[in-house]
Design brief:
This protein has 541 residues and is of the alpha/beta class. The chain has 22 helices and ten strands. The strands form two sheets. An eight-stranded mixed beta sheet has the order 3-4-2-5-1-6-7-8, sandwiched between helices. Strands 9-10 form a two-stranded antiparallel sheet. Helix 10 links the parallel strand 7 and strand 8.
Amino acid sequence: MFSWLGKQGGGRERGGGSDVVQTVTGGLRDLYLRKLLPLEEHYRFHDFHSPALEEADFENKPMVLLVGQYSTGKTTFIRYLLEQDFPGMRIGPEPTTDSFIAVMYGDSEGNIPGNALVVDPKKPFRKLSRFGNAFLNRFMCSQLPNQVLKSISIIDSPGILSGEKQRISRGYDFCQVLQWFAERVDRIILLFDAHKLDISDEFSEAIKSFRGQDDKIRVVLNKADQVDTQQLMRVYGALMWSLGKVINTPEVLRVYIGSFWSHPLRNTENRRLFEAEAQDLFKDIQSLPQKAAVRKLNDLIKRARLAKVHAYIISYLKKEMPSVFGKENKKKELINKLPEIYIQLQREYQISAGDFPEVKKMQELLETCDFTKFHSLKPKLIEAVDNMLANKIASLMSLIRQEESNMPTEIVHGGAFDGTMAGPFGHGYGEGAKEGADEEEWVVAKDKPAYDEIFYTLSPINGKISGISAKKEMVTSKLPNSVLGKIWKLADCDGDGMLDDEEFALAKHLIKIKLDGYELPGTLPSHLVPPSHRKPLQTAE
């Protein structure tokens, strides 16, 4: 899709000191290194928030992070998408996946252990080394030649348990690791089991660690075929109630309902619902390569805004520190007054409250810092970032649109995605306006006798009824005029403002399609054209 998917070196033309950006990846990397990184290093941004970005962070494929309590079907979901096993995969009703597994494309199957993975400059995981051996021993990369993985990478996470014991025994900060991944992935999928909707303390903390990444979160209610329709309605309501207590957003999260594995459905009442939901989820995942450049740009903007705010906070603390005596007492006073400092900086620099880091977390980090080593405010560094946000980002957005128009649309192929694209088992095949597409007989003919009875009560003249007569019958469907007007245009095949018996039958058929909940076609498909009108259309072509 975009040139950032390739391994092209460099982002700017070198000759003559030109500042012309050649690729989106190169432009993002160049802006970060020249404009944002100096500000981050000067005010120790990496010690407080997020490690510095590297080459692989700009070049990597879109990533999907799966998070959920044990036995909600995370590993099974990956196997369902790939339609094959991957190295290191373990599936069972007990807590089986005890590691973070990065499932990525490779020419041959194999595993790369965590300690080797974090020293590979081609992989975007080098900064995970700061979480130590306790984490790296529970981190691995599973490589295999799979068509799906040519476009995306998938991160499988350990099943989240309830209770203090499990949280302590991990040996590393689980939520910090999730936060690191959340800042770099393109999609976060929270999986829930229809029989296990409780959100444990650790799961609640894990979801809260995704603060600021709300646009990436999707929710999957898995194993929904194990309950009937009435129970599913209650389960869905209970899930939304539980999520509302943890995720503090005014918008409702998108929840996909289904059974994401290759076994027969245990309860087929909601088969059509599951198929429609799976199709929507697949479309969302398939669009990730197309949207990845915009996501990287968006994340860089969020990072730049946070880095600016961080610089204002650090420089303010430096300015308030005494030069000789009472440093420790003043430090404690400033840490306690941090909420008031936030408000003061908001007013002074016209910054939104949403751009500031969490107060409690910032207070904890400041406890161990020596305020005297902080730097004063350097306006040039701030101006460079402001210039980047105001001018440079706009040119990159136009470059993204240019690459979109020049390159073919890339979507995720292979695995379960191919099963939904074509053939009689594709979503919506043989339904709605597509019904009868592969039949020789006109699909409307089976209901035409009933439509003819209505047609002849409308007093046709020379075998046709007027628009006024047709309207009287069509409005009984209670569909809005905008829809009925579209149906009229589709049914009036010869455009004479009147309907013969076949055109009237077609109009009634299209009304039935709409009333059944399907969308009307933009143009009349060839299989719906009435038999007596087909020959003139072919001649006109």
